[in-house]
Design brief:
310 residues; Rossmann fold; 13 helices
């Protein structure tokens, strides 16, 4: 895994990548920090960098991650763009965090794709690269080979998403616990909560989401969730979407599928048993929702990430 550090990177953006993919987690990742050439790279916020590899690191990497950097709308070294294009053509997974998306866009790797970046820079990205469909309201976007994330803290969400893709939800949750991070925030969650939402109400909704996660096997309804939050159904539904990017029942369904993923990994229960325990009713329902949300059937997911029977 090559992390391409361009001049003026965010310390948090660089740190998140090295922390999530650290060898101590036992997942066989190795992050190679690199730049145009080995040596010093000017930083920002009081931190400079010294990398041990140049662009040749991209030639053998299975994943390339570009953290945000200073002056993303300015010119980018043509050698960097050529190296990014070559890596992508080879089939390398290409990832950007925060305004690192500008480097992928300048290389043409986001053309015809949906992508995100920090919400403050999203209009600039859309203006400078009209072939890119810019979504400024999400934490990250997974387009298969190419993935982008929003503001710098969203790098953590995207990196944990990559762990889920590569090793399953149990591994991702374990690393999130070590880092004292939210184990799962979907790509569709809003980058920020609109200011029109009073802060105490947001706290109430967080408590309601926690309550719902403890009662997924029950027939949860918007009525029940709104009653728990102490607001009307209309207010609950509208502000829930503003807060998470999903309607309440879309969010509940994804939470149920996520719980099913973990049970497929760590238990020997059959699909019908898991479906009942996560609240989707039948195995047929679980298979349908699993396929639609994750793009794979439960049986294939278990073959890939199973073998961890409790």
């Amino acid at each position: 895994m090559a992390m391409l550090i361009l001049p003026g990177p965010s310390p948090l953006g660089v740190g998140v990548v090295t922390q999530v993919f650290a060898p101590r987690h036992g997942l066989d990742y190795r992050v190679v920090p690199c730049s145009v050439q080995a040596g010093p790279v000017p930083g920002r916020d009081g931190l400079d960098y010294h990398v041990g590899a140049g662009l040749e690191a991209l030639e053998t990497a299975d994943t390339v991650i570009v953290p945000g950097f200073r002056n993303p709308a300015g010119p980018i070294d043509p050698r960097v763009l050529d190296a990014l294009r070559t890596a992508a053509f080879r089939g390398t997974r290409m990832v950007s965090t925060c305004v690192g998306a500008f480097a992928l866009a300048a290389a043409g790797l986001l053309d015809g794709r949906r992508a995100t970046t920090h919400w403050q820079m999203a209009p600039t990205l859309a203006r400078e690269y009209p072939k890119v469909t810019v979504d400024d309201g999400v934490l990250f976007v997974d387009e298969g080979q190419v993935l982008t994330s929003a503001g710098v803290a969203a790098a953590l969400d995207l990196c944990l998403h990559l762990i889920r893709r590569d090793h399953g939800v149990q591994a991702s949750n374990r690393i999130a616990r070590v880092m004292v991070a939210a184990p799962y925030r979907s790509g569709g969650q809003a980058q920020y909560v609109p200011r029109s939402i009073p802060e105490p109400l947001g706290d109430v909704f967080a408590a309601t989401r926690e309550w719902a996660l403890r009662h997924l096997e029950e027939p949860l309804t918007v009525t029940a969730m709104a009653r728990h939050a102490g607001v009307s159904e209309r207010t609950f539904g509208r502000r829930f979407v503003e807060d998470t990017g999903y309607t309440p029942m879309q969010w509940v369904l994804r939470a149920r599928v996520d719980l099913a993923r973990e049970m497929l990994e760590r238990t020997g229960l059959g699909v019908d048993q898991i479906a009942a325990r996560v609240g989707v009713g039948t195995g047929a329902n679980l298979r349908m929702h699993f396929q639609r949300i994750l793009g794979t059937p439960p049986s294939e997911y278990r073959k890939t990430f199973g073998g961890k029977v409790a």
